[in-house]
Amino acid sequence: MKAAPGQRHEISNWHITLHRDGRTITADGKLTWQPGPSKALRLAGIGLAAALALWLCLRSWTAWAAVALVAADVLHSAGVAADVADGPVAAFLKGNVVQFAAWAAALWAAWLLARRKDSIGALWVAAGAGLLIAAASGVPDLSVLWSSTAPFAWGMTVAQVLVTVVTGFGFGMAIALPVRLRWTRDTGARTDAENTETDSGARAAAETEEREPVLIGSASAADAWTGGRLAAVESRTGEQRATGGSRPAEEHAADDPAKSSASMPSRRSFLATGATSVGGVAAGAAASALLLDDRKSSAPAGDLVAGLGTATVAVPFPHQAGISVPARQQGHGTVAAFDLVDGATREQLKALMKAWTAAIGDLISGRAPSDDDEIALGSGPCSLTITVGFGPSLFGKAGLDPAARPPQLAPLPAFGTEQLDPARSDGDLGVVLAADDALVVFHALRTLTRIADGTAKPRWSMSGFTRAPGSSPDPSATGRNLMGQLDGTNNPAASQPDFERKVFVAAGADPAWMRGGSYLVFRRIRMLLDSWEAQSTADQEKVIGRRKDTGAPLPGGTEHTPVNLAAQNPDGSLAIRGDAHIRLAAPAANGGAAMLRRGLSYNDGLTAGGEPDAGLLFLAWQADPDRGFIPVQKRLTVNMDALNRFTKHETSALFAMVPAPSGSGYLGQALLEPGTASSNAASPAPAATLPSDVGSGGTGRAVLGADGVQRITVTADDTLRYHPSVIEMSPGTVEITFKNAGTLPHTLSEDGTLPDEPRAGVDNLAAGDQTTMSLKLTRPGDYPFQCGYHAAEGMYAVIRVR
Ligand code: HEM
């Protein structure tokens, strides 16, 4: 039999002779045996079912997989109970105590997922229920797959199909959870190499993080959440399944199936006990995760919260902070405009700029400015940034020649659909303040206002907010606006080679006083939320061209899938409608026009008409409004952007946000005292602001090779430190081999201060990978680097050229 498994085997020939009433009857026969189906083949069927379930889950159809699993297991259990002669209903109820809990959990997860496809908690519940069902119902009955009989009322084939589905789908759903979590992390951390031009902004989540300057003393939300999840996992022992179900036929061939199924053999009970214990743990974890996911218990954000107050944002010279750094926008922001008082002189304006420069230096470092009003006494800087600029109307005042106003700062043209309030538009001076605490922002604005007294007076100010740090398990995830859309997906990304060109005025560009600066277009855009919310989700998605839940473009994929504007529906219509917002706003539709959108949501109560006075404080940063906001807004107006029906532009302003002051200089010095302050862009690298514990990963010196190149290996790991974190080298070329020895992805990102390199760094290094980057650093100085994902946890390094 071993020699020919699977073949028909002749066991014996038999021959019976019967004599009756003088007659002789003979009967001949053969006993043959053909082995049942191969176990491997049947187990492969389970593998297929698991693969199908995994595929469904990864397509965000976990709800359907869960419903199919429950249906199969209910049928399976019913078929087993129906085979019990005395009391099938009682057998069903008694035999499926654990299953009832698992079915309820699976259906609950399906319901949650039908409402919110990306609910991580629901995915945990689904995975836990899947594991429980597979382990408690499928595994103990696996022998049905290769048996010829089993206590099942509706035939062996049905029993075998159901056991295959129950086991495969259950395990498939359980496997889907880690795959999905890993996948989500990976897509969030996509690198430039994976993306195309049309995907540029999609990289924002991962890549704008790279420009996060040094944040001191903060812990990441991701860690806090992860820690919470693990801590919340409870071990629960499931109940033993006492009755019901099928069992190996060969073990009980002589038994009455009805009786034997009522007192299941110890093997099944044993398996069920173990299985339900495993499943119980999983279900406990799942439930705990769901509670955390749905914010029903407080996340242990202790470290994060403790670090928020003391966090500071380094100025990314030659740019002011608050434009592209910090990558994670602070939770609160105010945009304010000032007008010079009548008769203000250039000397007064210079004095004001000097005083503001000094006060800003104090405020962003957490020092009290002189004559402090003590409004924010006891609060730290909370990542405060203050960004200052000049409006078109400044020229012609304070002795500034109106003709000296650069063409980029010409007042914005009128756009058809706007209804602007002049009193809350424009201004001579513009300031953007942002921090993770509203009081800190308010205090900073009051300080600037107090200092300006006698030279400039407030014209208007508007406050808004973004997501609070720690509110999302993934700090790099794109935030939502008040319409519920993921907003900011397709922004220029800091690590793109043309990012600087798009956002900041180039070193050789005119006017010289704006080199390293950026033009800010500010619009207060009220959202007509009552009308918007009256639309179905599908209609809302057509207005934008992206899915509301995932932010994926309508033709399909994930949030970061490149937008295919040519994609068609099966009926030949455009998948992204002709008037969809992302079609009309896309750089491809506007001659490459691009801007860095970093808006704030606002909620100012109700209008006189009782409608929500809420919407978007739209802030767009660009090197030139003529290659940014203006052509895009024209197109959105002329081509009737579908979003126009739900928005109202109420105020507008344009400011030339000057470069950061160099050395002992002050904001706007190059304009107010031409010739005295050199162009910032041409200046040497500034002394970097480094965190005090930057050396916590140790110091290493690059070793000079025979070819004149210095080399060093830097390792990153799950301690969220670089080793070494201080890299010493002599002026010249260094090759840094960057190794990821941990399980989390890391970046090695510079913050734009490298003098001889336009952009450098490693965008995303997956766990276990390594790569080598080459840098030419000829100028002595300290060049800070940080991990784009873990800067908030203090993962920074410095290259020290001496
Ligand atoms: C309340 C008003 C607005 C809302 C709610 C809104 C919302 C959105 C959303 C949800 C996206 C898709 C996700 C993304 O890539 O960020 C988007 C993309 C974009 N929006 Fe807006 N937007 C508004 C106003 C504007 C204005 C006034 C402009 C410029 C004139 C603009 C320019 C853009 C650009 C350039 C994109 C990226 C398009 C692409 O390349 O895919 N948006 N907006």
Secondary-structure blueprint of this entry?
Elements (H helix, E strand, L loop, with lengths): L8 E12 L2 E11 L5 H20 L3 H21 L5 H8 L1 H19 L4 H19 L17 H33 L15 H4 L13 H12 L24 H6 L3 H28 L8 H9 L21 E9 L5 H20 L19 E6 L38 E7 L2 H15 L3 E10 L33 H5 L14 E10 L1 H5 L3 H8 L36 H5 L10 E2 L2 E7 L5 E11 L6 H10 L8 E11 L11 H4 L26 E3 L1 E2 L5 E7 L5 E2 L2 E4 L2 E9 L5 E5 L10 E5 L4 E8 L3 E6 L9 E6 L1
Parallel strand pairs: 12-16, 14-17, 16-22
Antiparallel strand pairs: 1-2, 3-5, 3-6, 4-5, 4-11, 7-10, 7-11, 8-10, 9-10, 13-14, 14-15, 17-20, 18-19, 18-21, 21-22
Helix pairs in contact: 1-2, 1-6, 2-3, 2-4, 2-5, 2-6, 4-5, 5-6, 5-10, 8-10, 12-13
This protein binds protoporphyrin IX containing FE (HEM).
Protoporphyrin IX containing FE binds next to strand 7, helix 17, strand 10 and helix 18.
- Low-confidence regions: 185-278, 287-301, 677-687
Count of DSSP H/I helices? 19
Please state the CA-atom Rg, rounded to the nearest Å: 34 Å
Bound molecules: protoporphyrin IX containing FE
Q: How is the main sheet built?
A: 9 strands, antiparallel
Strand proportion, as a percent range, falls in 15-25%
Question: How many domain regions?
Answer: 4
Number of extended strands:
22
Mean pLDDT: 81
CA-to-CA gap between the ends?
Answer: 80 Å
**Structural class, from helix and strand content?**
alpha+beta
Net shape: elongated
Share of residues in helices: 25-40%
